DNA sequence: ACAGTTTCCCGTAAATGC
DNA sequence: TGCATTTACGGGAAACTG
């Protein structure tokens, strides 16, 4: 349930009179056939109402503006569709937990299913909870609504769905809710997008993007004089988001610590890399994301001064597959030219002895050469067939902790996030609202 | 459907009068909730019967001898349970294909579900197809039965299930069908078991086990003076089968070609390895399966003569995970001692230059050192921290094909298999009846 | 033919049951 | 509580469907 279990809490809102309207809920991606949980909370603590409130979930209630879109899909709940009585809980307030909800597409899409103007990950749906309360002679209908939800059928669609939810959220700060947003998606200011992208990195790796990194990304996606970013360029086939999402995935799975430490420069162009390295001494290297590998990959570039010539080398990028076999620090530690003992990576830019940055992460140093069964332990050394004379060996000098530029997290970020996501309450660094699916 | 799609063909058999009884069907492992297909064939070509035969599948019909076993599970068909009319086909004969069958456990196990005498993979079930034929005033009931089937709920149970099916089949050559076999499983002669094991390797890697290999296995499992093998020792927790199945898996996924070539000695004890290598020149090595890694792993041992002393080294075994990152030939090619260029693996036992055996499989030799984007290609070199002086470098001398002992396949195997599996007809080397689940 | 979408299912992890 | 068994579901790939 990992992906969808996150409960989003809803306040019950008296129809037309939102007396209690603190929606505390997250944007969400739901997958058909996969269980998710929703908790509905009645904000006022009126114990007298206990057992008098019956809540029922309804999918896409009263959103006719969207249901007329050609090919718009319809879904029904397959489990826990039944109403559930409210119960009082220790925390105070009346709560109902729908713990086994799951969606199934009901055929009969809106007619004209060919030439749909939206791809499925651009369809925004709504889950409402309605209650009909009769108490003390009074009768009132209440309902509360989720923020828009994207329904997908395969995990591979999640990144696109996420892009939609980000775009929607950013536009919702200025405009009223518009579920048919993507029929004609408005552009966004780079200023807005960059902030949200930065948060993704905060969420995935506990460190935002810096000015230089953002400026490199800006150069890649903004070609509008007013600094506007267009949906198609961001999200469509080979848009920037596919690439960034792959990198976020890489960070979350394999690079969390080094990213947090700030050792990964990441978004640097090749030209900038040359510029930075060419004046440093031989063996200086920096770590950057591949711009050509669409699935997200990381590589390092190092400088070599030889025969009065300066060369900046780069190794073939490492992907998810390789990083799961060996961690980046180990890869760097074991890196070698042509089966010699010479590792050209001597100083992490700028001038940090390699082992100072990575030594603490090495898994193979100090290991006994044989294991208990008498087998030799082996290391995988990544060598390249470079025939230039190798530079001098790196200084192995223990694991002194060098403080790079400490975390740049602006603490105002929390406030800004709350502005965008009114209901968000439990920001805590490890429970960010973005990309919370699949938190290892 | 890969795992269960294999259709097994059944002949309709007149009850009590098996006029047409050529059952052509394979033993099978079925997984709950996963589709499988069954084709039922009426052997006699009587076109007049067309459209008069309605066939219905029934699970565990008339096997009361088993249903009284405590905790015995019951299953029902969830799809295609409906009867299907027979139709004539080009091949001749009347055929019905049940193309979307799937099983679901029906609660209410046989009472006393605690202390079941059988684990689920020891439960043998039967699928029968019944037909009630009224034609030209005659009425006759016909039915045909599958060979026993084991029903599992997770892929991890398949190896155990397979063990049961092998054991059942081997015993069925002498005894009548006994579905409660595993309540008190009889032992088997090593002679029988060894043959079946050998076939597994033929099926997985197109090469049987040799005499020496079998004898090593025999030593591991037979401690009975009469050469009997006991079910518990073969199949239970850390029985031999878990280990062998892991190795079969390794072969099927990563070692098919080298196994077929006979370059993998595989089943050799450490003592035997010492014996074989100690008189060969430094750098001789042989490839064997790890005896201690339960999940299936492969390693190599090599001999070194130094200072008048003879040492046989062994490297930490390689598992599925490592082999999927790098092939065994590449691992061997890139193997090195302490980041020098010296690969101690020089001759494959006995005296075959390394590259003669493996050169043709190397994926990184002759590769341009840089790829089209200007990145250096890298090799993963497996080095060990051995400080003894390295032996002389290996002879790289092209890919001449050395013929080792050509395939030892006895061609009588097909006959013997037919004896064990009466209905088996399409033996073809690539469609063996064993371990046919998950043929890549 | 093809691209977008869904289904299928292995393999692993987590949950469940006894 | 531990172990045997089932359920859950990510991820990759095949199958579907207009």
Automatic annotation (TrEMBL), chains A, B:
Residues 259-358 form the SH2 domain. The keyword Coiled coil applies. One of its GO terms (biological process) is immune response. Its main location: cytoplasm. Keywords: Activator, Coiled coil, Cytoplasm, DNA-binding, Nucleus, Phosphoprotein, SH2 domain, Transcription, Transcription regulation. The keyword Nucleus applies. This is Signal transducer and activator of transcription. The gene is stat1b. The chain holds residues 300 to 739 of 753 of the full protein.
């Amino acid at each position: 349930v990992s992906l969808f279990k996150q409960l989003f809490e809803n306040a019950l809102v008296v129809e037309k009179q939102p007396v209690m309207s603190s929606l505390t809920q997250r944007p969400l991606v739901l997958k058909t056939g996969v269980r998710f949980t929703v908790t509905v909370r009645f904000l006022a603590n009126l114990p007298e109402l206990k057992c008098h409130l019956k809540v029922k979930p309804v999918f896409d209630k009263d959103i006719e503006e969207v249901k007329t879109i050609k090919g718009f899909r319809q879904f029904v709940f397959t489990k826990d569709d039944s109403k559930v009585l409210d119960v009082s809980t220790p925390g105070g307030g009346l709560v109902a937990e729908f713990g086994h909800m799951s969606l199934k597409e009901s055929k009969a899409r809106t007619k004209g299913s060919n030439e749909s103007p939206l791809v499925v990950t651009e369809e925004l749906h709504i889950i409402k909870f309605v209650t009909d309360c009769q108490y003390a002679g009074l009768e009132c209908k209440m309902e509360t609504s989720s923020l828009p939800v994207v329904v997908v059928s395969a995990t591979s669609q999640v990144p696109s769905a996420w892009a939609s939810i980000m775009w929607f959220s950013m536009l919702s700060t200025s405009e009223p809710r518009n579920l048919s947003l993507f029929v004609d998606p408005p552009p966004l200011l780079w200023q807005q997008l960059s902030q949200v992208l930065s948060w993704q990195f905060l969420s995935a790796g506990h460190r935002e993007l810096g000015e230089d990194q953002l400026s490199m990304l800006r150069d890649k996606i903004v070609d509008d004089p007013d600094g506007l970013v267009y949906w198609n360029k961001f999200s469509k086939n080979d848009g920037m988001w596919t690439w960034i999402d792959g990198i976020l995935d890489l960070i979350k799975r394999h690079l969390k610590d080094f990213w947090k430490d700030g050792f990964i420069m990441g978004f640097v162009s090749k030209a900038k890399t040359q510029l930075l390295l060419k004046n440093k001494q031989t063996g200086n290297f920096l770590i950057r994301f591949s711009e050509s590998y669409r699935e997200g990959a990381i590589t390092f570039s190092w400088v070599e001064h030889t025969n009065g010539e300066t060369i900046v080398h780069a190794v073939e990028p490492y992907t998810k597959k390789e990083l799961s076999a060996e961690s980046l620090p180990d890869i760097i530690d074991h890196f070698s030219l042509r089966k010699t003992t010479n590792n050209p990576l001597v100083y992490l830019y700028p001038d940090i002895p390699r082992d100072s940055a990575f030594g603490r992460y090495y898994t193979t140093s100090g290991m006994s050469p044989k294991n208990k069964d008498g087998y030799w332990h082996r290391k995988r050394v990544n060598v390249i067939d470079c025939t230039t004379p190798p530079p001098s060996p790196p200084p192995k000098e223990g694991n002194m902790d060098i403080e790079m530029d400490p975390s740049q997290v602006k603490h105002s970020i929390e406030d800004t996030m709350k502005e965008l996501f009114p209901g968000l309450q439990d920001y805590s660094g490890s429970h960010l609202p973005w990309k919370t699916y699949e938190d290892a």
